[in-house]
Amino acid sequence: MANKRACVVVLGDVGRSPRMQYHALSLAKEEYDVDIVGYSGSTPYSDVLFSSRISFHFMKQPPMFSHILPKFISYFLKVIWQTCFLAWILLWIPKPNFYLVQNPPSIPTLPICWLIARIRRAQLTIDWHNYGYTIMGLAIGPNHILTRISYHIEALFGRFADLHFCVTKAMSQDLQHNWGVRAITLYDRPAEIFQPVSLSEKHELFLKLGKDYHEFSSSRPDDTLLTERFADGQVRLREDRPGLLISSTSWTEDEDFSILLDALDEYELNRSVNSSDYPPLMCVITGKGPLKSYYSNIIQAKQWQHVEICTPWLEPEDYPKLIASADLGVCLHTSSSGFDLPMKVVDMFGCGLPVCAVGYNCLGELITDRENGMIFKTAGDLADQLLNWFHGFPRDNEENRQFYRRNLKVYQNLRWHEEWRKIALPYLSSTN
Ligand SMILES: *[C@@H]1O[C@H](CO)[C@@H](O)[C@H](O)[C@H]1NC(C)=O
Ligand SMILES: *[C@@H]1O[C@H](CO)[C@@H](O)[C@H](O)[C@H]1NC(C)=O
């Protein structure tokens, strides 16, 4: 049989595109040679980076046209630039059996990949993460001429593809209903690295973090804020430890961070009155993005006694460990289209961590309220959930917290590659 080859295209930072990296890894595991085309930036997972079957082809970033030219013109120049580089790379790399393209962005990705796929007689598969035009609509307004052009291009070339995957049932139904596109729902699943960790791994992680962030250290060099090591070498969680809350964010407009801050305000107040009922909280927020310094200033101005916020920079391999060490996750993701699910909750569930998340229409495909997580609308709801969760922590009310963790066991057992093999592989391998 001829050798199997796939080309994965993402017109964005490959390192920040976990799902396309998972696709590439799974293809490589099934003996495909994979070319990944995209932008460099964040470091991809080391499994992807060092796989002998996966090659990277990075595109050159367009110059900052918008610094010197009006928005409209700079947008067109950027698209032309991307078109040239993308087409050049796609024509130059070996012919694949199929192109697997992330949408969004849709422009110029969909038209170019469609054209090249036809020229090279390969199949075109779109992985719908969301709609490009709704994201554009958030930035420049839903009725802007560019948003409308974008809508028509996405609808037209979206329909031309041979095969479609998408991230939720809601999205699959919407694609079918609006554009007559039949997409197979392939849920995000946690990768293997998102696992529970042992007590000694937690201890090592906090010792390491304590070197850069004094919040995690303790007056005794062998102890940390949350763990202690006894003379016999045994590591235990401290009885007087704070609750560890974790949230990861890309610090953008579409995540309203003030909800969490308001909820923490309320927690602070309640704890200051009834301090024996609740632990202090350590809230760790990871991620980088445009609004980080804006919120850092607000956080610094808070004079909390019982709540501390830390925004550490983490090595990629420490992020899963930190999630696995936390007591509760918070997710502020809302969806521009209402059709995608937050990957960070998938990762948290992989580690067995229950989550409080802002509700929106299709979130029920991932979180069942009061079974494996809690869904909130307002800061007041979130504050109530935090107070309820941490009431009596760590000793009392442990059954409640264990109930949620038990309910995640089934979810934890089904991993990305297994799901991908079952759902995606049969379709992809039939396109040869
Ligand atoms: C303190 O606890 C009491 C009884 O548990 C409750 O009625 C009261 O509302 C609490 N006050 C605050 C501010 O949390
Ligand atoms: C928190 O404090 C408010 C008043 O400050 C009170 O009404 C509320 O009942 C308290 N919540 C809990 C869970 O104690």
Automatic annotation (TrEMBL):
GO cellular component terms given for this protein: endoplasmic reticulum membrane
Ranges of residues in domain Glycosyl transferase family: 244-391
Membrane among keywords: yes
Stretches that traverse the bilayer: 72-93
EC number(s) stated in the UniProt entry for this protein: 2.4.1.142
UniProt keywords, alphabetically: Endoplasmic reticulum, Glycosyltransferase, Membrane, Phosphoprotein, Signal-anchor, Transferase, Transmembrane, Transmembrane helix
Subcellular location: Endoplasmic reticulum membrane
Membrane topology: Single-pass membrane protein
Superkingdom of source: Eukaryota
UniProt cross-references to InterPro entries, sorted A to Z: ALG1-like (IPR026051), Glyco_trans_1 (IPR001296)
EC primary class: transferase
Pathway assigned in UniProt: Protein modification; protein glycosylation
Family: Belongs to the glycosyltransferase group 1 family. Glycosyltransferase 33 subfamily.
Listed name of the protein: Chitobiosyldiphosphodolichol beta-mannosyltransferase
Organism: Daphnia sinensis
